[in-house]
Amino acid sequence: MSYRNGIAEEKLREYARLMVRVGINVQPGQEIVISCPVEHYAFAHELIKEAYLAGAAEVIMRWSDDVETRQYYENVSEETLSTVPDWKAQSYLYYSRRGAGHLSVSGGDPENLKGIDPMRMHLREAALEQALEEHHKRMMASEVPWSVAAVPQKKWAKKVFPELSEEEGMEKLWELILKSVRVWDGDAVSAWEKHNAFLKEKCRMMDEYGFEKLHYKNSIGTDFTVGLVKGHKWEGGSEKSGTGTVFMANMPTEEIFTMPHREMAEGTIVSSMPLSYRGTMIKNFSLTFQGGKVVDYHAQEGIETLKSILDGDEGSRHLGEVALVPYTSPISQMKTLFYHTLFDENASCHFALGACYPTTIEGGAAMSEEELLQAGGNTSMNHVDFMVGTSDLTITGIKSDGEEVLLFENGDWADR
Ligand code: ZN
Ligand code: ZN
Question: How would residue 1 be classed by pLDDT, with cut points 50, 70 and 90?
Fold first, then answer.
């Protein structure tokens, strides 16, 4: 048997198979768009093979490259940053209109864009958001199956395990990633079935409660109440696309999440983990809300970046996601900061500033932007998750008649 960074080829194939079969759940005759950094070509090859084995009509590769991306942001004019050629926009729209599955492999240097002027990135984001609006809407509303998973990369591994050699770091990161996606011992597909059933049961329980608001409290200074929209739905684990395909948008995933009311958030939230945003770290920050809006904020490090997020657009100062993750979740127990939202958000209860997920309110997928805002949902070009879960976090659910239910105690489900 041959090995890559000490990880058996068989495990990599199992991971690729899991992403193709459970992640986007490729259907016979379906087109599959795979986004992948060029340095992970070997893993992409496994994905391509698995996708065709599952009956894909065509696999379309979108290669990316950290060096190219950095060079781009350092060199192109503001005009280029704010221009998205029509052919580029059309290439996204073409496939999402046809119901293609979108599989995204993440795994680059988390600090690749460190030091780039946030305004330049903002220009690009805004241009892409405008040009790809329809495509993004389809993804956010889960009309097409999509899935994101990660593969270790040298600089990323060094960032997570600075004390280890490059080789040891890569090996360790592979191990943690594979464990987090349950490709370690036993059958990964059946492990996901069991895990998915647990998340679905929690969603059912929370939907039945139908809380009006949630109150968060812990010893690092969080004392915060967030309102939930009327008709909110809790989601977690698998989703169903517009064409009826059951898929897993994030691998790993440990969260259940719903829609906060954009005008109902009061008090202060203190971050429990640093936020790595486009290569810049924001550390030990807090946000104070009034009437659903951030009115004050602090950060020990990265305040300029935090400000650029909050000033992104009108919706960036309001919440779009409330997510519950037990402090005892496997990723949390790894006691590792991954500098990667896909992992860090699954280690901790979190919120997101910016866009809500329309699927987390009754009838939301069919709502226009105005209707969504009317219902209390939030719209924004941003969706930035930040972590608030601690080992002593208490969350209390409050019903509209004032009845209170203790949901989280010592950072975990109280009824566990
Ligand atoms: Zn989340
Ligand atoms: Zn999120």
Answer: very low
What are the residue ranges of helices labelled H in 141-187?
154-160, 166-180
What whole-number distance in Å separates Cα of residue 7 and Cα of residue 89? Answer: 38
Comparing CA positions, the residue from 228, 170, 229 lying closest to residue 375 is 229
Ordered DSSP codes for 392-406: T-EEEEE-TTS-EEE
> How much distance in Å is there from the Cα of 234 to the middle of ligand 2?
13
What's the CA-to-centroid distance between 190 and ligand 1, angstroms?
23
Concatenated DSSP letters of 220-280: TS-EEEEEE-TTB--EES-EE-TTS-EE-SBSS---EEEPEEEEEEEEEEE-SS-EEETTE
- Mean pLDDT to the nearest integer, 281-298: 97
Ligand 2 mean position, distance from CA 357 (Å): 9
Which of 321, 358, 343, 183 is closest to 274 using CA atoms? 343
Question: How much is the pTM?
Answer: 0.83
Q: Which helix (H) or strand (E) holds 49?
A: helix 41-53
**252: preceding bond cis by omega (within 30 degrees):** yes
Q: How far is the CA of 347 from the centre of ligand 1 (A)?
A: 10
Q: What distance in angstroms lies between residue 188's CA and the mean position of ligand 1's atoms?
A: 22
pLDDT tens-digit map of 37-69? 999 999 999 999 999 999 999 999 999 999 999
